[in-house]
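INFO batch 0412 | record 1 of 1 | parsing
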Amino acid sequence: MERTPSSPDQVTTGSRRARRPGLGRIIEVGLWIAVIGLLAWRFGPQVGAAFGIGAINEPAPDFVVETMAGDTVSLADLRGQVVLLNFWATWCPPCRIEMPGFQRVWEDYRDQGFVIVGLSVDQGVRSEVVRWVEQRGLTFPIAFAPGPVIRTYGGANTLPTSILIDREGRIVHRVQGYYAETALRAAVRRLLD
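INFO prediction complete | emitting tokens
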């Protein structure tokens, strides 16, 4: 037997209940908005670098560092090349994950004018960092990050921090946190063209 409402008020009240989202639904939507916002904040800079969106376009301050191989590298000497300045540490998990991809991109594009300068913020013994680098087969220039360079570039606030500098010596993108190989590869190709 079908039950019918005894008054018009019951129909209105029942349909209001059906239209009103429950607390669970509101929380679910709020969580999805937070997740999407976190992903955009986290991966937005990588996507921007890959596609050339949201370039910073400010002059990169000059720096001079001595690599672990004993060579001197300065930004002035790298003018005309695309430079990835990467602040990292041996104890930093995302740094460890991204380094092999950096090595592959550097090997593929170094002859076309791409260079990576890895700046370690490790406070440990130099020989330990050198051993860590050698064990992973990293051959791009790596140096300890001098305090003035860290301060100038703000590179030790979040590790890793990667700063892309174009051929004219302008900072075009900054990626804080893990930098995916595919995003870096796309950004380097775009900047070399």
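INFO post-check: The helical segments are 8-19, 23-51, 93-109, 126-135, 147-153, 181-192.
INFO record closed
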